[in-house]
Design goal:
Belongs to the AzlC family. With 235 residues, this protein is an all-alpha fold. It is built from 12 helices and no strands. It folds into 2 domains: 166 residues, no CATH class; 51 residues. 77% of the residues lie in helices and 0% in strands.
Length: 235
């Protein structure tokens, strides 16, 4: 395969990942602000973004730490929030499973909601892509997304206290996930899982330390899997 084909796949990935900057920038700045307001120093805030690199889990953990939740609850909840990464990995295995271990390790580290959503959609739409093209495309998507997450977290940690409240940076959190989840609701199983997660999340909101979200996620997975089984049997 020619290097031009690989370069084309890479730059296509960069172009497809670039629109996410509209939400990545305020999302990352917001985490920098929230982290410093929660009492974390600069190294701790950046450590969160570099080592965890998962916005939802980071926000959840910082909020629970601010509420003085037990360490075990913080860890379990953050892991539960990131459980979707295991499902993302399973979905990408048919497309990237034959890559060398070090490349799969890099993909695993940089696998966030945005890179998965764009990458998986591309691989499904173009089953004829080679392994090299898939990897090039995915790393292209990663290029604008992940470095920006680090840089803007740093900006938020350094200057966040001076950002006027009326800028309402927190809009980036719900918009990001709505934009990624809505197009994925293509089957009855997806819709059922989403509906159950919302219903249980609201019904169990009274539980301490947001532990109701753990039960909501578990219930959603069970319902989604069951609906998938029913649908398969009927077909």
């Amino acid at each position: 395969m020619s290097s031009s084909t690989i370069k084309s796949a890479y730059w296509t990935g960069v172009r497809h990942g670039a629109p996410f900057l509209l939400v990545i920038v305020p999302f990352a700045v917001l985490f920098g602000v929230v982290g410093t307001e929660a009492g974390l120093n600069l190294a701790e805030v950046m450590g969160f973004s570099v080592l965890v690199i998962a916005g939802a889990a980071q926000f959840t953990a910082v909020q629970m730490m601010s509420d003085n939740a037990p360490t075990l609850i913080v860890i379990v909840t953050a892991l539960a929030v990131n459980l979707r990464m295991a499902m993302y990995s399973a979905s990408l295995t048919p497309y990237l499973g034959e890559a060398p271990l070090w490349k799969r390790a890099l993909v695993a580290y940089f696998l966030v909601d945005q890179t998965f959503a764009v990458g998986h959609a591309r691989f499904e739409a173009r089953p004829g892509m080679t392994l090299a093209e898939r990897l090039a495309y995915l790393f292209g998507v990663i290029t604008p997304v992940c470095p920006t997450w680090y840089a803007m977290t740093l900006v938020g940690a350094l200057v966040g206290q001076g950002i006027p409240p009326e800028y309402a940076l927190d809009f980036a959190v719900p918009i990001t996930f709505i934009a990624m989840i809505a197009p994925a609701l293509r089957t009855a199983a997806h819709v059922a899982a989403a509906g159950v997660s919302v219903a249980l999340g609201l019904a169990l909101a009274f539980m301490p330390y947001n532990t109701g979200l753990l039960l909501a996620a578990l219930g959603a997975m069970i319902v989604g899997a069951q609906v998938e089984l029913w649908t398969g049997r009927r077909e």
